[in-house]
Backbone:
């Protein structure tokens, strides 16, 4: 998980270079336009991403990352979060991202910024909203990959209600291994 932590510096040119080649491959200007939109717009991200996504194949990955802001004094959305990169609590902005992958490409399809301290939604509520939006957009995949802290029963029941399996980072188990069966939310 934590795909964002593997990179030290991001540029729109590098993002474009990492995309699969082809006639639909985005230019670096497309990334620049997407990132410069104000306010952040998850629907705009989906409009850019959907041409690269096969709704019936691949899998979804839900992951959060902390965007470090160690020197921020009074900056919106900056709170204290656990950072797996630093292995401690740090000041930063917590970003939850929904990615689609076919094993070759990682395409961001949705995101949420954690804002519970200022009256926003919890991480689990954002997680559920993103899965519901993915289902509404027509995703018909089998698997959702996620960090183990998203393995709350309500989240697992939601995944099962869509007929999907889950694989979390810590336990590496699916509904079938529990004997519940694919799509069964009767537990």
Residues:
């Amino acid at each position: 998980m934590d795909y964002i932590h593997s990179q030290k510096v991001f540029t729109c040119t590098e993002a474009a270079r990492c995309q699969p080649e082809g006639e639909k491959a985005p230019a670096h200007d497309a990334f620049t336009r997407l990132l410069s939109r104000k306010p952040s717009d998850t629907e705009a991200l989906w409009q850019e991403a959907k041409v690269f996504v096969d709704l019936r194949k691949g899998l979804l990955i839900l992951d959060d990352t902390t965007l470090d802001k160690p020197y921020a004094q009074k900056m919106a959305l900056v709170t204290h979060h656990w950072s797996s990169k630093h292995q401690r609590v740090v000041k930063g902005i917590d970003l939850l991202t929904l990615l689609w992958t076919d094993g070759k490409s990682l395409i961001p399809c949705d995101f949420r910024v954690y804002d519970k301290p200022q009256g926003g939604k919890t991480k689990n509520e954002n997680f559920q909203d993103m899965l519901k939006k993915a289902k509404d957009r027509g995703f018909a995949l089998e698997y959702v990959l996620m960090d183990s802290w998203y393995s709350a029963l309500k989240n697992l029941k939601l995944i099962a209600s869509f007929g999907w399996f889950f694989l979390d980072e810590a336990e590496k188990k699916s509904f079938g291994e529990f004997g519940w069966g694919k799509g069964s939310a009767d537990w």
In short: The radius of gyration is 17 Å. Residues 123-136 form the longest helix (14 residues).
